[in-house]
């Protein structure tokens, strides 16, 4: 009798277990005693009363779901309002909201890299950008991490349309790409620049307007930016920002917009409330950066190998995948939730704890977190 067509999964599971790379889902309770440095709630807004009230009000008014794709019934006045305010806040002509940051990256990369074009992609890019490159009809060249000279060399090998794709802040170590230099290289070659600002929006730039705004790229005819609504804005969803003609093109060409159900009204409403709150309280962005800097300072004083943060992510190197998993588990037992990044999620193969600074953390909580990490270090 033939075995299951999925018997090959057993071997994959064995190899994962042998390498110490098994992942499991851990449902969290609504309330927790853990000090959270694992989530991406950089501004501390996901439970803010104004944000949660806006989510509830939007669900009551517009319904629990969008009911269809954005081109059918999935666009409400709330979606359009969010798009206008996002574009205005970040300094771009137009914006397009999608169901996730992942969907936004797939939309932008695939729609802006047709057959015959070249995509130049940073080796440290997020998986969603990598998958966008794989799905696009253009040819992809991967270049060394945060290396404008390598980008210039790659662009010099191609005649025709080209787009350079990069995170603004890389999610593993929290380091920023040299965005101004990258933009200059793109302009020399007449290439477009696509920046994923998932970890920059709400943290970098004037009042949290993002890394492209800080680099003077907001509103540029050759720059397109993707953001997520699930980090600094404490909600869910993603958006593409850029010239109006680019956004109009995405409405007609981006498959993750055309064939996906629109963002739930509750998510659109809460993201809009969070954006308005950030406008009113721009100091939250500076506080998130200050907390990250303090985390790094205290961790290095303890003799730990921590990467200097350019935004709100701080990574701490671990000696092995197994040690990283044990370290994160020991922190949890001590009341601290931290992220644990290991292969294949890290492009350099180095395992680490990943800490996220939050604007609502007190100095005492920062010190407590560092003490726990140091005490449990392998």
Task: State the gist of this model.
This protein is an alpha/beta fold.
Global morphology: globular
Order of helices and strands: HEHHEHEHEHEHEHEEHHHHEHEEH
Structural class: alpha/beta
Q: Work out the strand percent.
A: 5-15%
**How many strands appear in the DSSP assignment?**
11
* Side-by-side strand order of the widest sheet: 2-8-7-6-5-3-4
Helical segment tally?
A: 14
Low-confidence stretches: none
Classify the helix fraction into a percent range: 40-55%
**Mean pLDDT across all residues, rounded?**
96
> What's the main sheet like?
7 strands, mixed
Rg from alpha-carbon coordinates: 21 Å
What is the rounded distance between the termini? 49 Å
How is this fold's topology laid out?
Elements: H1 8-18, E1 35-37, H2 49-62, H3 77-90, E2 94-98, H4 101-112, E3 118-122, H5 127-135, E4 139-143, H6 148-155, E5 162-167, H7 179-189, E6 192-196, H8 211-214, E7 223-228, E8 238-242, H9 244-253, H10 255-258, H11 265-280, H12 283-301, E9 313-317, H13 321-333, E10 336-341, E11 352-356, H14 363-375
Parallel strand pairs: 1-10, 3-4, 3-5, 5-6, 6-7
Antiparallel strand pairs: 2-8, 7-8, 9-11, 10-11
Task: Summarize the structure in words.
The protein is α/β, with parallel strands linked by helices and 378 residues long. The chain has 14 helices and eleven strands. It has helices at 8-18, 49-62, 77-90, 101-112, 127-135, 148-155, 179-189, 211-214, 244-253, 255-258, 265-280, 283-301, 321-333, 363-375, and strands at 35-37, 94-98, 118-122, 139-143, 162-167, 192-196, 223-228, 238-242, 313-317, 336-341, 352-356. The strands form two sheets. It has a seven-stranded mixed beta sheet with strand order 2-8-7-6-5-3-4, sandwiched between helices. It has a four-stranded mixed beta sheet with strand order 1-10-11-9. Helix 2 (49-62) runs antiparallel to helix 11. The protein starts with 7 loop residues before the first helix and ends with a helix.
């Amino acid at each position: 009798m033939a075995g299951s067509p999925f018997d090959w999964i057993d071997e994959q599971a064995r190899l994962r277990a042998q390498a110490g790379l098994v992942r499991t889902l851990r449902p969290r309770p609504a309330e927790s005693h853990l000090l959270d440095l694992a989530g991406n709630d950089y501004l501390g807004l996901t439970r803010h009363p104004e944000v949660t009230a806006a989510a509830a009000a939007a669900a009551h008014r517009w319904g629990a779901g969008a009911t269809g794709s954005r081109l059918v019934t999935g666009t409400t006045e709330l979606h359009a309002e969010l798009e206008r305010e996002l574009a205005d806040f970040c300094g771009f002509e137009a914006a397009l909201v999608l169901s996730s940051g992942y969907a936004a990256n797939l939309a932008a990369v695939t729609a802006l890299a047709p057959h015959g074009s070249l995509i130049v992609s940073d080796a440290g890019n997020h998986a969603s950008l990598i998958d966008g490159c794989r799905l696009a009809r253009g040819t992809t060249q991967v270049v060394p991490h945060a290396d404008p000279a390598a980008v210039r060399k790659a662009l010099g090998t191609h005649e025709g349309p080209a787009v350079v794709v990069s995170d603004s802040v890389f999610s593993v170590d929290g380091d920023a790409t040299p965005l101004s230099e990258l933009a200059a290289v793109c302009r020399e070659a007449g290439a477009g620049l696509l920046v994923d600002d998932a970890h920059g929006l709400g943290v970098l730039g004037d009042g949290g307007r993002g890394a492209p705004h800080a680099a003077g790229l907001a509103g540029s005819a050759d720059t397109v930016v993707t953001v997520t609504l699930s980090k600094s804005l404490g909600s869910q969803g993603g958006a593409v920002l850029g010239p109006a003609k680019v956004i109009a093109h995405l409405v007609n060409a981006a498959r993750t917009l055309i064939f996906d159900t629109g963002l739930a009204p509750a998510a659109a409403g809460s993201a809009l409330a969070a954006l308005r709150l950030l406008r009113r309280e721009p100091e939250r962005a500076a506080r998130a950066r200050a907390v990250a800097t303090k985390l790094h300072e205290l961790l290095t004083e303890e003799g730990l190998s921590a990467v200097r943060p350019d935004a709100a992510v701080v990574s701490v190197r671990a000696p092995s995948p197994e040690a990283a998993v044990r370290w994160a588990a020991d922190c949890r037992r001590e009341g601290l939730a931290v992220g644990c990044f290991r292969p294949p999620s890290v492009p350099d193969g180095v395992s680490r704890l990943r800490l996220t600074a939050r604007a609502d953390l007190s100095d005492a909580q920062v010190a407590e977190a560092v003490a726990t990490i140091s005490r449990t270090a392998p």
